[in-house]
Automatic annotation (TrEMBL), chain A:
Protein name as annotated: ABC transporter permease
Cellular component annotations (GO), alphabetically ordered: plasma membrane
Family label: Belongs to the binding-protein-dependent transport system permease family.
ABC transmembrane type-1 domain segment(s): 81-265
Bilayer topology annotation: Multi-pass membrane protein
Protein's cellular compartments: Cell membrane
Transmembrane segments: 30-46, 52-73, 85-110, 122-141, 148-166, 186-204, 211-231, 243-262
Protein keywords: Cell membrane, Membrane, Transmembrane, Transmembrane helix, Transport
One annotated GO biological process: transmembrane transport
InterPro entries assigned: MetI-like, MetI-like_sf
Record bears the keyword Metal-binding: no
Principal location class: membrane
UniProtKB/TrEMBL annotation, chain B:
Name recorded for this polypeptide: ABC transporter ATP-binding protein
Basic and acidic residues bias locations: 268-285
Alphabetical UniProt keywords: ATP-binding, Nucleotide-binding, Transport
Upper taxonomic lineage: Bacteria, Bacillati, Bacillota, Bacilli, Bacillales
Signal peptide location: none
Region (Disordered): 268-291
Pfam hit, one: ABC_tran
Domain ABC transporter: 5-245
UniProt keyword annotation of Transmembrane present: no
Gene Ontology MF term list: ATP binding; ATP hydrolysis activity
């Protein structure tokens, strides 16, 4: 009986320390992930106040956040963000719908891929922003030219990665599937497509990043709404804290987009071996 | 017993494309198989041994219907092979599992191709996972399995859609000695229970003598069947026990005698391959000078 008692006593204790260890690990992870940012924010707060940096051009983060909060309450920030996101997501989605099927087809017909690849490489390495004036000339300053430039910036990384994904499917897997009597269509659907998903996702992430980058720049050049416009307009009007509020919003959006794409990728390619494991 | 597969005067040559500009004219066909004749009986365990590069995998691809012979023909139940089909299953040396599918998903793959319904598919896949001793690992992805386990999955996948013939290309070559021995005896057990015709390719003479009812010895490239040797053991308990059997030792020696020269020749071929390309380039230069 004494033994039983001892056992009962020990058990909750072990559980407690287990939980403690868990939360400790979580804390350590949080610390690792945030320490550098926290330090930088502290520097941002302190240096202007101490006069190390000119406070007019570089207001402390607390002031920037206060402005950001006001912009949010007034609804301005949401309007601009909504304008930017709809352009960015529109162009991005359009690029995905067009270039993934196209890339799959091009990759499948090897000769076509060989002819097209140099052209695609050339287009990808032509900075999208360099072509922006052409888009504005052809499509005007409205929404169309903005969606079009995002579309243009997204389509090449998506196409090139999809093509290379299809071309680099392990021939042994194709052989193995063929030996089980699969016809061309099922082979494509059941082997080629799933095998190229990891590479396609590299393209999706690249496209996601450039969709925001290109859009912000386009909005700075010619627009009357959007976060790029907000930043540019604030700078012209000497509304420095508003400018930084816009910049912070874009960084946060970039982070969120990346996070969403990475978790989607993890879900879809969970079967892949992680080299770091 | 009835003849299951008959290989008649089969030749296979490859046209090799070289990238090096200087050697362009050298695109003459490379003869991989030369006049292969072999009959495999219904339910037989036939082992093919031969030196590296003699065309074993080429022969297996032909049997699978993945490629066609340059001349000659292969009959399955008296009918020429028309292409890949689920009546033949292949197990590759490098497993060839689909990395995005779990062990169970991989075993189901062939069944899906065969048009078996979802529930039946799952049930049968589970049965075969059990058969190869992998129950409990159904939901693992290939990268979470050891080499031996992957090969078990591959074997289960090929058995699950119930082919009449099992073609195995050095399936155990990449495994360590213990795992190989376990899988060898399990393969024999499976063969005895399923009564499938098996064509098994290997480098290993001991493996050949242990597994095969007959062993076909191939010559170095271009591959020919040099001799077919009967292995008369009735029951094979384990390779370990057989090894000390004097009959086993004699057969192993006999096959080794047949293979020895071929292996040496194959190695020379490998070595001279690179040298050759230099030599022929030189020779051409010489001709050009004289001309
Ligand atoms: N698709 C191909 N194109 C050109 N040559 C090929 C092709 N496939 C095989 N060969 C050549 O045919 C010969 C036989 O190849 P094969 O792969 O059948 O040999 P193997 O007996 O299986 O060798 P190993 O034991 O090393 O696996 C080799 O010389 C190889 O270079
Ligand atoms: Mg081989």
């Amino acid at each position: 009986m004494a033994n039983g008692r001892a056992g009962e006593l020990v058990l909750p204790k072990a559980k407690e320390s287990e939980a403690a260890r868990w939360s400790l690990a979580a804390l350590r992870k949080l610390f690792k992930n945030s320490i550098v940012i926290v330090v930088l924010l502290a520097i941002w707060e302190v240096t202007p106040r101490l006069g190390i940096i000119n406070i007019t051009f570089f207001p402390p983060i607390s002031q920037v956040l206060a402005t950001w909060w006001q912009l949010l309450l007034s609804g301005d920030l949401l309007d601009h963000t909504a304008a930017s996101l709809s352009r960015s997501i529109g162009g991005f989605a359009l690029a995905i719908v067009v270039s993934i099927p196209l890339g799959l087809a091009i990759g499948w017909w090897k000769p076509v891929a060989e002819y097209l690849n140099p052209f695609l490489e050339l287009m990808r390495n032509t900075a999208a922003l360099a072509i922006l004036p052409v888009f504005i000339l052809l499509l005007g300053l409205g929404e169309t030219s903005k969606v079009a430039i995002v579309f243009y910036a997204c389509i090449f990384p998506l196409l090139l990665n999809t093509i290379s994904g299809v071309k680099n499917v392990d021939p042994l897997l194709i052989k193995s599937a063929r030996s089980m009597g699969l016809n061309a269509v099922s082979l494509f659907r059941k082997v080629i497509v799933p095998a190229s998903i990891p590479t396609i996702f590299v393209g999706i992430r690249q496209a996601g990043a450039s969709s925001i980058l290109v859009l912000v720049a386009a909005e700075m050049v010619g627009a009357t709404s959007g976060l790029g416009y907000l930043i540019q307009y604030a700078q012209f009007s000497f509304l420095i804290t508003e400018m930084y509020a816009g910049i912070i919003t874009i960084s946060v959006i970039g982070l969120i987009v990346n996070y969403v794409l990475v978790s989607l990728e993890k879900r879809l390619t969970g079967w892949k071996q992680n080299a770091r494991e | 017993m009835a003849v299951k597969i008959s290989i008649e005067h089969v030749q296979k040559s490859f046209r090799i494309k070289r990238n090096m500009g200087a050697l362009k004219e050298e695109a003459q066909p490379l003869s991989a198989l030369h006049d292969i004749n072999l009959e495999v009986r219904q339910g037989e365990f036939m082992v093919i041994v031969g030196p590296s590069g003699c065309g074993k995998s080429t022969l297996l691809d032909l049997l699978a219907g993945l490629t066609t012979p340059s001349s000659g023909r292969i009959l399955l139940d008296g009918k020429p092979i028309a292409g890949p089909n689920l009546d033949r299953g292949i197990v590759f040396q490098q497993y060839a599992l689909f990395p995005w599918k779990t062990a169970l998903g991989n075993v189901e793959f062939g069944l899906e191709a065969k048009g078996v319904g979802r529930e039946e598919r799952r049930k049968r896949a589970k049965e075969y996972i059990d058969l190869v001793g992998l129950s409990g690992f159904e939901n693992r992805y290939p990268h979470e399995l050891s080499g031996g386990m992957k090969q078990r999955v591959a074997i289960a996948r090929s058995l699950a859609y119930d082919p009449e013939v099992l073609l195995m290309d050095e399936p155990f070559a990449a495994l360590d000695a213990q795992t190989r021995e376990t899988l060898q005896s399990e393969l024999l057990r499976i063969w005895e229970t399923t009564k499938k015709t098996i064509i098994f390719i290997t480098h290993g003479i001991e493996e050949a003598v242990y597994l095969g009812q007959r062993v076909a010895v191939m010559s170095s490239r271009p591959g020919r069947i040099k001799q077919v040797i009967d292995i008369p053991f009735e029951s094979r308990s384990s390779e370990e026990d057989l090894r000390s059997n004097p009959e086993f030792v004699r057969l192993r020696h006999e096959i080794w005698e047949l293979l020895k020269d071929e292996v040496v020749r194959a190695q020379e071929q490998e070595k001279s391959k690179t040298l050759d390309s230099f030599k022929s380039a030189d020779a051409r230069k010489g001709v050009a000078k004289h001309g």
